[in-house]
Amino acid sequence: MELLIWIGSILSILGLVGLFWCIKTVLKAKKLATSDEELRSSLQKAVPLNMAALFLSAIGLMLVILGIML
Hints:
Elements: H1 2-32, H2 36-69
Helix pairs in contact: 1-2
């Protein structure tokens, strides 16, 4: 079950990296946006990536907990 813990922690770290990347992208888009429409389109592109990163991180944490329990 140690393998589950390692796989889960790797997935969680990848998810966190994705979340930080989304934060960085949104902050950069806020600085560079000249209009409301441009900012909105940038944010709409970042939302699916943000949700995927959050999902990956949650699955990783579930695997860690499962590995600890087993």
